[in-house]
Specification:
Elements lengths: L2 H21 L3 H12 L6 E2 L13 H18 L3 E4 L4 E4 L3 H13 L13 H12 L1
Antiparallel strand pairs: 1-3, 2-3
């Protein structure tokens, strides 16, 4: 591979990682990705329910507006999801695995994650307990 091709490829990879990390900077987007990860690959999930942290109450109308205007377009623009307005649902997009792998890795390594990032996160607490017991 030529140096120019290697640099071009490296820039593409950096851009993809930047997109992944930008996608997971907001809790509703993280919750939606985990909901889709938990669902069968060809299944749609209902919104806003699938974007709500079960341990943190949310204002459903405000969340719905944020989903429409911020979160869903951001995830769809990167190919991570597809979404429909009526009824409000989401499904995996062609690049879903790029973002899902981050959560799969976190869940698989929950025992190694610092308490400050686990305690209070029901999903990681459960994953940690399951892994510690096995």
């Amino acid at each position: 591979m030529s140096l120019e091709a290697r640099v071009t490829n490296c820039r593409r990879v950096v851009d993809r990682w930047d997109a992944v990390f930008e996608a997971i900077t907001a809790e509703p987007r993280r919750q939606l990705i985990v909901s889709l990860l938990d669902a069968p690959a060809d299944q749609v999930v209902s919104l806003p329910e699938s974007a709500v942290n079960p341990d943190v109450p949310a204002d459903a109308e405000r969340l719905r507006q944020e989903l429409f205007h911020v979160h869903l377009p951001k995830l769809e623009d990167q190919g991570f999801i597809h979404w429909d307005r009526d009824p409000l649902t989401a499904s995996r997009g062609p690049r879903f695995e790029e973002v899902a792998v981050v959560f799969s890795a976190l869940h698989a390594n929950a025992v190694d994650i610092p308490d400050s990032l686990v305690i209070g996160c029901h999903r990681l607490e459960s994953e940690r307990q399951e892994r510690a017991e096995s």
